[in-house]
Automatic annotation (TrEMBL):
Belongs to the Dps family. It comes from the Bacteria. NCBIfam families: PRK09448.1. This is DNA starvation/stationary phase protection protein Dps. It holds the Pfam family Ferritin. Residues 28-166 form the Ferritin/DPS domain. Gene3D superfamilies: 1.20.1260.10. Signal peptide: none annotated.
Amino acid sequence: MSNNNETNKIAEFTAPGMNEESAKNTIATLDNRMVALIDLQLTLKHIHWNVVGPNFIGVHEMLDPQVEVIRAMTDTIAERIATLGGVPVGTPKSIVDRRSWQDYAIAKGLVKDHLVALDKVYNGINGDHRSAIGKLSELDPVSEDMLISQLADLEQFQWFVRAHLESSTGKLNS
């Protein structure tokens, strides 16, 4: 967390029918997902710019639509945080301060190397989205539903990545 507690709930309201504690916990859960999706957007653009080798163009062109969908997901989460009386903070330093994972390690690299690494990124994003859905099921069904919808797209994007890595027998070549 940043030193200013920027993600703390500061409004004197939340969604009607939701108690303050549920709102606070929902905002914290959504904030974590917002940070992860902002990081994912940037990672996808990084890969888009730095992927080389066989199948370059297919991977290059596959990533931009993912970035656009994930940008929309991020916006939806940020607006939900605000709806609940929270403050969606998306400044670069605040994102780095709040994330709990290591930076993407590959610079310019071959298609397979980037896709193997991206598959691991999606493992983390998708697994954490599932965990957040579990938490939100007790706190806020509206936010839970939002993340369920997002996870369907995120899992499909991971399938697109894995299709480049999968053998004809279904084994992931990593």
